[in-house]
Amino acid sequence: MAKLGGSQLFLCVLALVAATTTAADLPGFIERYGRTFWTEGSEFLFNGFNAYWLMGDAASPHSNGSKVTALFEEAAAAGLTVCRTWAFYDGFSNDSLQVTPGVYHEQVFKGLDFVIAEARKKGIRLILSLVNNYKDYGGRPQYVDWARRAGLFVPSDDDFYTHDIIKGYFKEHIEYILNRTNTFTNITYKNDPTIMAWELMNEPHCESDPSGKIVTAWVQEMATFLKSIDRKHLLGVGLEGFYGSSTPDKVKLYNPNAVQIGVDFIGVHKVNEIDYATVHAYPDFWLEGQSEVNKTEFVKQWLWNHWKDSMEVLGKPFMLGEFGKTKKDPGYSEQIRNDFYSTVYDSIYSISKDGHKTFTGGLLWQLFVDGMESYYDGFEIILSQDASATALILNQSKKMGELAGAA
Description:
The protein is of the alpha/beta class. It has one domain: TIM Barrel. Helices cover 42% and strands 14% of the residues. It contains 13 helices and 15 strands. It has an 8-stranded parallel β-sheet with strand order 10-9-8-5-4-13-12-11. A 3-stranded antiparallel β-sheet has the order 1-2-3, with no helix packed on it. α7 links the parallel β9 (195-199) and β10 (234-236). The longest helix has 23 residues, at 292-314. It is globular and about 50 Å long. Mean pLDDT is 93; it is low at 1-24.
């Protein structure tokens, strides 16, 4: 869309260097067998992290992907083997991946290509999320805005889930992403085992339908469509874990303040094409003002009860897709954060150990590298600067690795 600048030339040169990569030197796909993950004949467990910013950094003329490479090097050294990141940026700007429906910014797409290629080099698998619930990076509000600009009557952002034209926009995005050929590796995304899983949406909500039935119907439609193109990869939803109308007793017992946000943990994950169940854990937001003791107990029960439902009701593997402790909380201290991390990690490990490796792992929110202060959200972890967090992460990585290899 523009004349080649410094970063474009840099990425093109790297693409030529990496063009000889073949499928032969890639690892096997992560596959689901019953309630567990496997790869190449072995059970797969992980310790992982979120880093939503990777594609944008790789495409930036000010970075040339150096921070992506540095992060993957630091993460691999800490034993982290799975990274969840965005495969979307929807909007009208030159920084966007999808500028208008079906129209993509090639330079930004090459940034995503670079992220995938670098992850493969460092032995890190990727979970790629396909759209945001929120307006950050466009999300479903941007899809609705595109429809309105096309002259369609779309009264609510929640129409993202039901309007045929908007659903068509998103299906086009799914198809385009899955059939993309990586300019660094010459491997089509749908054939690349570096990608562990696709995720339909980051934290879907639908406040106009507290029951969760609208989101469940959307997941069924989109999951069926995606799997018609790609049956090699795992597929998740991206849920925070709130219960809905199919389990009203659990809404009262387990949803923070019995809130309903238009999703149904059980109903959504019963969709056959969805391979695993997820929750997120943010007690600082969900239990604002409560004691650390209450927040800790909540997280333990939140993880245990959702894992139990994943085993007994869903029959699918379970993972923690996001968790974190914010420095912006008035009572924050490094020790409180470390205690929270320890609680989460101990829960993952102990449930997985006693539950036949069915709690597959957790992804902390989130990792950065030096020199990214403008990105900080209060949850940031910089491994090179944070010895205590790094020690906790290393220990969890070691334990999950040993458990994966245990008979």
